[in-house]
Amino acid sequence: METTNKKTIGDYVANDFRTAALFSKYGIDFCCKGNRTVAEACEKKALDANQLEKEIKAILNSSTDQTTDFKSWPLDELIDYILKTHHTYVAEKSKVLYLFLDKLCKVHGSRHPELLEIYKFFSGGAGELANHMKKEELILFPFIVNMVDAQKTNHPIPTAHFGTVAHPIAMMQDEHSIEGERFAKIAEMTHNYTPPTDACETYKVTFAMLKEFESDLHKHIHLENNILFPAAQDLEIQLIRLGKLAHAQI
Q1: Rounded CA gap, 101 and 216, in Å?
Q2: Nearest to 149 by CA among 138, 136, 158
Q3: Residue 200: phi, psi to the nearest 5?
Q4: Percent of the chain with pLDDT over 70
Q5: pLDDT number for residue 74
Q6: Distance separating alpha carbons of residues 171 and 227, to the nearest angstrom
Q7: In the structure, what pLDDT confidence band is assigned to residue 2 with cuts at 50, 70 and 90?
């Protein structure tokens, strides 16, 4: 790989927009001052250039391709993956996108009023996603993990207060549909995340991040709707038949 000490910050962001969130994290302007090298930017901010270069390389070397057979995973491990990969992603990227979209609205909103609507849609979606994930983290996922534990041991577990696991799953699926439609609307408003001809670097990065956010959301929902949730319902039926779970009230 080419060493980082000769490339400018703008080069990195142009080649891989994922680095924009890293520069933003350290308060480094990749847009108006993107012609600086990492070393120059770090010197100005009193940051460790070597450490930042390591983090940049980690991003550039990371792969977004997914060939893992998640259907073969134990449900508790799949939940752990969803939490660490997708729930963490939503929480972290939402903060960055809030800032970027707010900046775009202030700088370009007069010429591109659609940005205000995009910001409104994203803010609503990110807020609802945060509430949605909390319900999974505090209610649904712990119960599924308890069922996995019951399957491994001879200790039965009580029926959950929501009756059958199908109830919260149906709610989560409905909320998934709402968010999928919301981000489809954002894609439509951004012309499939195509920045206008007068877009600055921040504009381009923000649209690229929105596109990645939607892509991650699709993977996130796929893992839950198509793998985790059906398996959890099958496991509940197995536990009832084995007498490890009282018959759920439907």
Answers
A1: 19
A2: 158
A3: -85, 180
A4: 94
A5: 96
A6: 16
A7: very low
